[in-house]
Protein backbone atom coordinates (compact mmCIF):
# COMPACT_ATOMS: atom_id res chain seq x y z
CA UNK A 1 0.00 0.00 0.00
CA UNK A 2 -0.51 2.35 -1.74
CA UNK A 3 -1.33 -0.05 -4.59
CA UNK A 4 1.12 0.21 -7.46
CA UNK A 5 1.52 -3.19 -9.04
CA UNK A 6 -1.00 -5.85 -9.86
CA UNK A 7 -4.64 -6.67 -9.34
CA UNK A 8 -4.40 -8.03 -5.81
CA UNK A 9 -2.88 -4.80 -4.51
CA UNK A 10 -5.62 -2.75 -6.15
CA UNK A 11 -8.34 -5.05 -4.82
CA UNK A 12 -7.00 -4.98 -1.27
CA UNK A 13 -6.76 -1.18 -1.30
CA UNK A 14 -10.22 -0.62 -2.77
CA UNK A 15 -11.92 -3.21 -0.57
CA UNK A 16 -9.90 -2.50 2.57
CA UNK A 17 -10.48 1.24 2.62
CA UNK A 18 -14.23 0.73 2.26
CA UNK A 19 -14.35 -1.85 5.05
CA UNK A 20 -12.29 0.46 7.26
CA UNK A 21 -14.67 3.34 6.51
CA UNK A 22 -17.55 1.08 7.54
CA UNK A 23 -15.96 0.69 10.98
CA UNK A 24 -14.07 -2.58 10.65
CA UNK A 25 -10.48 -3.03 11.84
CA UNK A 26 -8.42 -3.99 8.79
CA UNK A 27 -4.80 -5.18 8.88
CA UNK A 28 -2.93 -5.52 5.59
CA UNK A 29 0.35 -7.45 5.39
CA UNK A 30 2.70 -5.71 2.96
CA UNK A 31 6.02 -6.41 1.29
CA UNK A 32 8.19 -4.19 -0.82
CA UNK A 33 8.38 -0.41 -0.51
CA UNK A 34 7.40 0.76 2.97
CA UNK A 35 4.65 3.36 3.37
CA UNK A 36 5.93 6.05 5.79
CA UNK A 37 2.87 5.86 8.05
CA UNK A 38 1.54 2.84 10.01
CA UNK A 39 -1.93 3.44 8.59
CA UNK A 40 -3.19 4.13 5.09
CA UNK A 41 -6.81 5.01 4.25
CA UNK A 42 -7.88 3.63 7.62
CA UNK A 43 -6.03 0.31 7.19
CA UNK A 44 -3.27 -0.79 9.55
CA UNK A 45 -0.17 -1.74 7.58
CA UNK A 46 2.31 -4.39 8.70
CA UNK A 47 5.49 -4.60 6.60
CA UNK A 48 7.36 -7.89 6.67
CA UNK A 49 10.34 -9.16 4.65
CA UNK A 50 10.40 -11.86 1.98
CA UNK A 51 13.01 -14.01 0.27
CA UNK A 52 13.75 -12.27 -3.04
CA UNK A 53 13.51 -15.32 -5.25
CA UNK A 54 10.71 -16.19 -7.66
CA UNK A 55 9.98 -19.56 -6.09
CA UNK A 56 10.02 -18.36 -2.48
CA UNK A 57 8.96 -14.70 -2.33
CA UNK A 58 5.21 -15.15 -1.90
CA UNK A 59 5.29 -18.09 0.48
CA UNK A 60 8.05 -16.70 2.70
CA UNK A 61 6.21 -13.43 3.19
CA UNK A 62 2.90 -15.15 3.86
CA UNK A 63 4.56 -17.43 6.41
CA UNK A 64 5.73 -14.44 8.42
CA UNK A 65 2.34 -12.79 8.01
CA UNK A 66 0.57 -15.86 9.40
CA UNK A 67 2.87 -15.92 12.42
CA UNK A 68 2.15 -12.24 13.06
CA UNK A 69 -1.60 -12.79 12.68
CA UNK A 70 -1.40 -15.64 15.19
CA UNK A 71 -0.73 -13.10 17.92
CA UNK A 72 -3.65 -10.88 16.94
CA UNK A 73 -6.26 -13.57 16.29
CA UNK A 74 -8.40 -11.69 13.75
CA UNK A 75 -12.09 -12.56 13.32
CA UNK A 76 -11.41 -13.59 9.73
CA UNK A 77 -8.49 -13.80 7.31
CA UNK A 78 -8.50 -13.24 3.56
CA UNK A 79 -5.64 -14.97 1.76
CA UNK A 80 -4.93 -13.92 -1.81
CA UNK A 81 -3.43 -16.56 -4.13
CA UNK A 82 -3.91 -20.32 -3.84
CA UNK A 83 -0.09 -20.65 -3.77
CA UNK A 84 -0.33 -19.82 -0.06
CA UNK A 85 -2.46 -22.88 0.66
CA UNK A 86 0.29 -24.86 2.51
CA UNK A 87 0.05 -22.26 5.30
CA UNK A 88 -3.71 -22.50 5.73
CA UNK A 89 -3.52 -25.31 8.35
CA UNK A 90 -1.74 -22.86 10.69
CA UNK A 91 -4.71 -20.49 10.52
CA UNK A 92 -7.11 -23.39 10.99
CA UNK A 93 -5.16 -24.63 14.05
CA UNK A 94 -5.55 -21.15 15.51
CA UNK A 95 -9.29 -21.28 14.72
CA UNK A 96 -9.05 -18.25 12.46
CA UNK A 97 -11.67 -18.67 9.70
CA UNK A 98 -10.15 -18.09 6.28
CA UNK A 99 -11.27 -17.46 2.72
CA UNK A 100 -8.80 -17.98 -0.12
CA UNK A 101 -8.97 -15.91 -3.28
CA UNK A 102 -7.78 -18.55 -5.73
CA UNK A 103 -6.80 -16.12 -8.53
CA UNK A 104 -6.37 -17.43 -12.08
CA UNK A 105 -4.88 -20.60 -13.51
CA UNK A 106 -1.35 -19.81 -12.40
CA UNK A 107 0.00 -23.24 -13.31
CA UNK A 108 -0.55 -22.43 -16.99
CA UNK A 109 2.10 -19.70 -16.92
CA UNK A 110 5.26 -20.74 -18.73
CA UNK A 111 7.46 -18.93 -16.20
CA UNK A 112 6.93 -21.94 -13.95
CA UNK A 113 8.89 -25.11 -14.61
CA UNK A 114 7.40 -28.57 -14.33
CA UNK A 115 8.01 -28.47 -10.58
CA UNK A 116 6.38 -25.05 -10.28
CA UNK A 117 3.38 -26.16 -12.29
CA UNK A 118 2.95 -29.25 -10.14
CA UNK A 119 3.18 -27.09 -7.02
CA UNK A 120 0.41 -24.78 -8.20
CA UNK A 121 -1.82 -27.70 -9.18
CA UNK A 122 -1.29 -29.19 -5.72
CA UNK A 123 -1.87 -25.81 -4.04
CA UNK A 124 -5.27 -25.55 -5.71
CA UNK A 125 -6.36 -28.84 -4.16
CA UNK A 126 -4.99 -27.79 -0.76
CA UNK A 127 -6.91 -24.51 -0.94
CA UNK A 128 -10.07 -26.51 -1.54
CA UNK A 129 -9.30 -28.83 1.38
CA UNK A 130 -8.28 -26.24 3.98
CA UNK A 131 -10.25 -23.06 3.23
CA UNK A 132 -13.56 -22.20 4.85
CA UNK A 133 -14.49 -20.44 1.61
CA UNK A 134 -13.02 -19.96 -1.84
CA UNK A 135 -13.31 -16.68 -3.72
CA UNK A 136 -13.42 -16.65 -7.52
CA UNK A 137 -13.30 -13.37 -9.44
CA UNK A 138 -14.63 -14.80 -12.72
CA UNK A 139 -17.36 -17.24 -13.63
CA UNK A 140 -14.79 -19.19 -15.61
CA UNK A 141 -12.70 -19.68 -12.46
CA UNK A 142 -15.79 -20.68 -10.48
CA UNK A 143 -16.65 -23.25 -13.14
CA UNK A 144 -13.06 -24.59 -13.16
CA UNK A 145 -13.15 -25.34 -9.42
CA UNK A 146 -16.57 -26.94 -9.75
CA UNK A 147 -15.49 -29.17 -12.61
CA UNK A 148 -12.00 -30.09 -11.37
CA UNK A 149 -12.63 -30.36 -7.62
CA UNK A 150 -16.41 -30.43 -7.18
CA UNK A 151 -15.88 -27.35 -5.00
CA UNK A 152 -18.08 -24.28 -4.65
CA UNK A 153 -16.74 -20.74 -4.42
CA UNK A 154 -18.08 -17.28 -3.69
CA UNK A 155 -18.08 -15.29 -6.94
CA UNK A 156 -16.91 -11.71 -6.36
CA UNK A 157 -15.45 -9.83 -9.33
CA UNK A 158 -13.23 -6.76 -9.19
CA UNK A 159 -14.38 -3.17 -9.59
CA UNK A 160 -13.45 -0.72 -12.32
CA UNK A 161 -12.38 2.91 -11.89
CA UNK A 162 -14.57 5.05 -14.15
CA UNK A 163 -12.97 8.02 -15.95
CA UNK A 164 -15.11 10.58 -17.68
CA UNK A 165 -12.43 12.55 -19.50
CA UNK A 166 -8.83 12.30 -20.67
CA UNK A 167 -6.04 14.27 -18.98
CA UNK A 168 -4.74 15.67 -22.26
CA UNK A 169 -2.03 17.63 -20.45
CA UNK A 170 -0.51 14.40 -19.11
CA UNK A 171 -0.64 12.88 -22.58
CA UNK A 172 0.98 15.94 -24.13
CA UNK A 173 3.79 15.84 -21.56
CA UNK A 174 4.43 12.21 -22.56
CA UNK A 175 4.40 13.14 -26.24
CA UNK A 176 1.05 11.66 -27.28
CA UNK A 177 -2.27 12.97 -28.57
CA UNK A 178 -5.73 11.48 -27.89
CA UNK A 179 -6.70 8.83 -30.40
CA UNK A 180 -3.28 8.80 -32.03
CA UNK A 181 -1.69 5.65 -30.57
CA UNK A 182 -2.36 2.00 -29.74
CA UNK A 183 -1.63 0.75 -26.22
CA UNK A 184 -0.48 -2.42 -24.46
CA UNK A 185 -0.27 -2.60 -20.64
CA UNK A 186 0.98 -5.93 -19.29
CA UNK A 187 3.61 -7.80 -17.39
CA UNK A 188 6.03 -9.30 -19.88
CA UNK A 189 4.93 -12.92 -19.70
CA UNK A 190 4.11 -15.20 -22.66
CA UNK A 191 0.55 -15.77 -21.39
CA UNK A 192 -0.12 -12.04 -21.75
CA UNK A 193 0.73 -12.27 -25.46
CA UNK A 194 2.75 -9.07 -25.71
CA UNK A 195 4.70 -10.84 -28.46
CA UNK A 196 1.47 -11.37 -30.39
CA UNK A 197 0.54 -7.70 -29.94
CA UNK A 198 3.86 -6.69 -31.51
CA UNK A 199 3.60 -9.26 -34.31
CA UNK A 200 0.04 -8.26 -35.16
CA UNK A 201 0.82 -4.58 -35.06
CA UNK A 202 3.90 -4.91 -37.27
CA UNK A 203 1.94 -7.02 -39.75
CA UNK A 204 -0.66 -4.25 -40.02
CA UNK A 205 -0.49 -1.09 -42.10
CA UNK A 206 -1.00 1.02 -38.97
CA UNK A 207 0.11 4.62 -39.09
CA UNK A 208 -0.32 5.38 -35.39
CA UNK A 209 2.41 4.14 -32.98
CA UNK A 210 2.23 1.21 -30.58
CA UNK A 211 3.02 2.16 -26.96
CA UNK A 212 3.95 -0.73 -24.65
CA UNK A 213 3.78 -0.25 -20.87
CA UNK A 214 5.16 -3.00 -18.67
CA UNK A 215 8.15 -4.89 -17.35
CA UNK A 216 9.20 -8.38 -16.33
CA UNK A 217 10.71 -8.98 -12.87
CA UNK A 218 11.79 -12.54 -13.74
CA UNK A 219 11.67 -12.76 -17.54
CA UNK A 220 14.79 -11.27 -19.13
CA UNK A 221 14.69 -13.79 -21.97
CA UNK A 222 11.11 -12.94 -22.90
CA UNK A 223 11.84 -9.21 -22.70
CA UNK A 224 14.74 -9.69 -25.12
CA UNK A 225 12.42 -11.58 -27.45
CA UNK A 226 9.95 -8.69 -27.44
CA UNK A 227 12.62 -6.16 -28.30
CA UNK A 228 13.85 -8.44 -31.07
CA UNK A 229 10.31 -8.66 -32.48
CA UNK A 230 10.01 -4.87 -32.42
CA UNK A 231 13.33 -4.56 -34.20
CA UNK A 232 14.12 -1.07 -35.37
CA UNK A 233 10.48 -0.22 -36.13
CA UNK A 234 10.18 3.43 -35.05
CA UNK A 235 6.44 2.99 -34.49
CA UNK A 236 6.97 0.69 -31.47
CA UNK A 237 7.87 2.31 -28.12
CA UNK A 238 8.63 0.57 -24.81
CA UNK A 239 7.79 2.89 -21.89
CA UNK A 240 8.69 0.40 -19.14
CA UNK A 241 6.67 0.50 -15.92
CA UNK A 242 4.50 3.60 -15.49
CA UNK A 243 3.92 4.30 -11.80
CA UNK A 244 2.26 7.68 -12.32
CA UNK A 245 -1.36 6.58 -12.06
CA UNK A 246 -2.71 9.78 -13.62
CA UNK A 247 -0.49 9.26 -16.65
CA UNK A 248 -1.50 5.62 -16.89
CA UNK A 249 -5.17 6.58 -16.82
CA UNK A 250 -4.52 9.19 -19.50
CA UNK A 251 -2.85 6.56 -21.68
CA UNK A 252 -5.81 4.20 -21.32
CA UNK A 253 -8.32 6.95 -22.04
CA UNK A 254 -6.36 8.47 -24.91
CA UNK A 255 -5.53 5.28 -26.82
CA UNK A 256 -7.20 4.58 -30.13
CA UNK A 257 -7.16 0.90 -29.10
CA UNK A 258 -6.06 -0.99 -26.03
CA UNK A 259 -4.63 -4.44 -26.94
CA UNK A 260 -5.30 -6.90 -24.12
CA UNK A 261 -3.52 -10.23 -24.49
CA UNK A 262 -4.02 -11.75 -21.02
CA UNK A 263 -5.22 -15.34 -21.21
CA UNK A 264 -4.90 -17.29 -17.93
CA UNK A 265 -6.29 -14.99 -15.25
CA UNK A 266 -9.85 -14.37 -14.20
CA UNK A 267 -11.35 -10.90 -14.25
CA UNK A 268 -8.31 -8.85 -15.17
CA UNK A 269 -7.90 -5.45 -13.44
CA UNK A 270 -6.00 -3.94 -16.39
CA UNK A 271 -8.90 -4.78 -18.68
CA UNK A 272 -11.39 -3.24 -16.24
CA UNK A 273 -9.26 -0.12 -15.96
CA UNK A 274 -9.17 0.21 -19.73
CA UNK A 275 -12.94 -0.25 -19.93
CA UNK A 276 -13.53 2.31 -17.20
CA UNK A 277 -11.38 4.77 -19.15
CA UNK A 278 -13.49 4.25 -22.25
CA UNK A 279 -10.75 2.50 -24.23
CA UNK A 280 -11.64 0.59 -27.36
CA UNK A 281 -10.50 -2.91 -26.43
CA UNK A 282 -8.98 -5.55 -28.72
CA UNK A 283 -8.81 -8.64 -26.50
CA UNK A 284 -7.29 -12.09 -26.84
CA UNK A 285 -10.13 -14.53 -27.43
CA UNK A 286 -10.55 -16.55 -24.22
CA UNK A 287 -13.62 -17.09 -22.06
CA UNK A 288 -12.41 -14.77 -19.27
CA UNK A 289 -12.14 -11.78 -21.62
CA UNK A 290 -15.46 -12.53 -23.31
CA UNK A 291 -17.11 -12.77 -19.90
CA UNK A 292 -15.93 -9.28 -18.95
CA UNK A 293 -16.44 -7.52 -22.28
CA UNK A 294 -19.56 -9.25 -23.57
CA UNK A 295 -20.15 -9.12 -27.31
CA UNK A 296 -20.55 -5.37 -27.84
CA UNK A 297 -17.85 -3.73 -25.70
CA UNK A 298 -14.78 -5.07 -27.52
CA UNK A 299 -13.31 -6.98 -30.43
CA UNK A 300 -11.40 -10.26 -30.16
CA UNK A 301 -8.32 -11.73 -31.84
CA UNK A 302 -6.64 -15.11 -31.77
CA UNK A 303 -3.58 -14.60 -33.98
CA UNK A 304 -1.42 -11.91 -35.53
CA UNK A 305 -3.51 -11.71 -38.71
CA UNK A 306 -6.81 -11.07 -36.92
CA UNK A 307 -5.16 -8.50 -34.65
CA UNK A 308 -3.63 -6.71 -37.62
CA UNK A 309 -7.06 -6.52 -39.25
CA UNK A 310 -8.64 -5.14 -36.06
CA UNK A 311 -5.95 -2.46 -35.72
CA UNK A 312 -6.41 -1.40 -39.34
CA UNK A 313 -10.19 -1.30 -38.91
CA UNK A 314 -9.86 0.98 -35.88
CA UNK A 315 -7.65 3.41 -37.79
CA UNK A 316 -10.04 3.32 -40.76
CA UNK A 317 -13.06 4.11 -38.54
CA UNK A 318 -11.97 5.77 -35.29
CA UNK A 319 -15.56 6.82 -34.60
CA UNK A 320 -16.70 3.20 -34.38
CA UNK A 321 -13.73 2.42 -32.13
CA UNK A 322 -14.71 5.30 -29.84
CA UNK A 323 -18.30 4.01 -29.70
CA UNK A 324 -17.05 0.62 -28.52
CA UNK A 325 -15.01 2.40 -25.87
CA UNK A 326 -18.15 4.15 -24.68
CA UNK A 327 -19.98 0.83 -24.52
CA UNK A 328 -17.08 -0.62 -22.51
CA UNK A 329 -17.22 2.24 -19.99
CA UNK A 330 -20.98 1.80 -19.60
CA UNK A 331 -20.61 -1.94 -19.03
CA UNK A 332 -17.88 -1.40 -16.45
CA UNK A 333 -19.93 1.24 -14.60
CA UNK A 334 -22.94 -1.06 -14.42
CA UNK A 335 -21.31 -4.42 -13.65
CA UNK A 336 -17.97 -3.76 -11.91
CA UNK A 337 -18.60 -1.41 -8.97
CA UNK A 338 -16.13 -1.30 -6.08
CA UNK A 339 -18.83 -0.41 -3.54
CA UNK A 340 -20.69 -3.59 -4.48
CA UNK A 341 -17.48 -5.62 -4.38
CA UNK A 342 -16.61 -4.34 -0.89
CA UNK A 343 -20.15 -5.06 0.35
CA UNK A 344 -19.80 -8.65 -0.89
CA UNK A 345 -16.50 -9.03 0.97
CA UNK A 346 -18.08 -7.60 4.11
CA UNK A 347 -20.87 -10.20 3.95
CA UNK A 348 -18.28 -12.91 3.38
CA UNK A 349 -16.21 -11.86 6.39
CA UNK A 350 -19.28 -11.71 8.64
CA UNK A 351 -20.27 -15.19 7.48
CA UNK A 352 -16.76 -16.43 8.28
CA UNK A 353 -16.81 -14.85 11.73
CA UNK A 354 -20.23 -16.29 12.53
CA UNK A 355 -19.09 -19.73 11.28
CA UNK A 356 -21.77 -19.83 8.61
CA UNK A 357 -19.01 -20.85 6.21
CA UNK A 358 -16.88 -23.84 7.11
CA UNK A 359 -14.57 -26.23 5.33
CA UNK A 360 -17.61 -28.31 4.34
CA UNK A 361 -18.82 -25.33 2.32
CA UNK A 362 -16.16 -25.79 -0.33
CA UNK A 363 -14.90 -29.36 -0.01
CA UNK A 364 -16.28 -31.91 -2.45
CA UNK A 365 -18.46 -34.63 -1.01
CA UNK A 366 -16.53 -37.75 -0.04
Automatic annotation (TrEMBL):
Residues 181-331 form the Glycosyl transferase family domain. It comes from the Bacteria. Residues 6-151 form the Glycosyltransferase subfamily 4-like N-terminal domain. Pfam families: Glyco_trans_4_4, Glycos_transf_1. Keywords: Glycosyltransferase, Transferase. The keyword Glycosyltransferase applies. Gene3D superfamilies: Glycogen Phosphorylase B. Transmembrane segments: none annotated. InterPro entries: Glyco_trans_1, Glyco_trans_4-like_N. PANTHER family: BLL3647 PROTEIN (PTHR12526:SF636), GLYCOSYLTRANSFERASE (PTHR12526). This is DUF1972 domain-containing protein. It comes from Actinomadura yumaensis.
Amino acid sequence: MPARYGGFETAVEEIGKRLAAAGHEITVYCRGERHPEPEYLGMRLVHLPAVKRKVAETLSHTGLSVLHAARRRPDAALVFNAANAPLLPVLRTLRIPVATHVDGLEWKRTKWSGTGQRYYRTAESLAVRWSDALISDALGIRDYYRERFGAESVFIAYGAPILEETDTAKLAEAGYAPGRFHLVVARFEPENHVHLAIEGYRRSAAREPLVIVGSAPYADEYTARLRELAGDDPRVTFLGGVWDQDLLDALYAGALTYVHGHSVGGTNPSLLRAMGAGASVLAYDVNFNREVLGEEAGRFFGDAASLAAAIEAAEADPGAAADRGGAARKRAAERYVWDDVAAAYERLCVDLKERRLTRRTVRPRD
